[in-house]
Design brief:
The complex is a heterodimer.
Chain A (H helix, E strand, L loop, with lengths): L2 E5 L2 E5 L4 E8 L5 E7 L5 E7 L5 E3 L5 E5 L4 E6 L8 E9 L2 E4 L3 E6 L1
Parallel strand pairs in A: 2-11
Antiparallel strand pairs in A: 1-3, 3-8, 4-5, 4-9, 6-7, 7-8, 9-10, 9-11
Chain B lengths: L3 E4 L2 E4 L5 E7 L5 E8 L3 E10 L2 E4 L7 E3 L7 E4 L8 E8 L10 E2 L3 E5 L1
Parallel strand pairs in B: 2-11
Antiparallel strand pairs in B: 1-3, 3-8, 4-5, 4-9, 5-6, 7-8, 9-10, 9-11
Classes of the chains: A mainly beta, B mainly beta.
């Protein structure tokens, strides 16, 4: 089965700094890749998804992710962190109906 | 918009007790999921249902049963709860069109503690 690995269970940035959350996937075929965000005591929300149409994918709240086949990566970035970005972020890969999630990265934003 | 509704939100059980987690969606989706979320492990799929009357095992189905009696509702049952089933459970559904692959809509979760 396909899988994703998120590097770093916790990331801390200052407000206004670059956000970089790392995700690597394992797949023998072109994958569907996703980033989801979870705010405290809530369910997950879709942030963005990659379906092979374009390697740079823009999502909500100023986030974007770049698919790099040579590195089997799908890292999530945001140029300038905001306090409201503090949440847990999950990378996921889909093989048909089977969605597999990474372990998650908790983002803390310091004032 | 109600979206995906889960009940109960919190539950405490003793080892060996049984209970059912309820999930209902009002978005007319065929596909529904049950996940469990544990610290450091992300979300793991318990069961999936493609439509009414059909279910498939996911990554961690042992100790659980599911029922998809109609299009709206997908329930998860623990017949004999164990402490290892202490977790947060999420129900999700997804639209049926090909452009929406992987776009899951989640409920707010059900926090279960087994003593």
């Amino acid at each position: 089965a396909q899988s994703v690995t998120q590097l770093g269970s916790h990331v801390s940035v200052s407000e206004g700094a670059l956000v970089l959350l790392r995700c690597n996937y394992s797949s023998s075929v072109p994958p569907y890749l996703f980033w989801y965000v979870q705010y405290p005591n809530q369910g997950l929300q879709l942030l963005l998804k990659y379906t092979s149409a374009a390697t740079l994918v823009k999502g909500i709240n100023g986030f974007e992710a770049e698919f790099k086949k040579s590195e089997t990566s799908f890292h999530l970035t945001k140029p300038s962190a905001h306090m409201s970005d503090a949440a847990e972020y999950f990378c996921a890969v889909s093989e048909g109906w089977d969605m597999r999630f990474g372990a998650g990265t908790r983002l803390t934003v310091k004032p | 918009n109600a979206g995906v509704t889960q009940t109960p939100k919190f539950q405490v059980l003793k080892t060996g007790q049984s209970m059912t987690l309820q999930c209902a969606q009002d978005m007319n989706h065929n596909s529904m999921y049950w996940y469990r979320q544990d610290p450091g492990m992300g979300l793991r799929l318990i069961y999936y249902s493609a439509s009414e009357g059909t279910t498939d095992k996911g990554e961690v189905p042992n100790g659980y049963n599911v029922s998809r009696l109609n299009k709206r509702e997908f329930s998860l049952r623990l017949e004999s709860a164990a402490p290892s089933q202490t977790s947060v459970y999420f129900c999700a559904s997804t639209p049926d069109d090909a452009n929406s692959i992987g776009e899951l809509f989640f409920g707010e979760g059900s926090r279960l503690t087994v003593l």
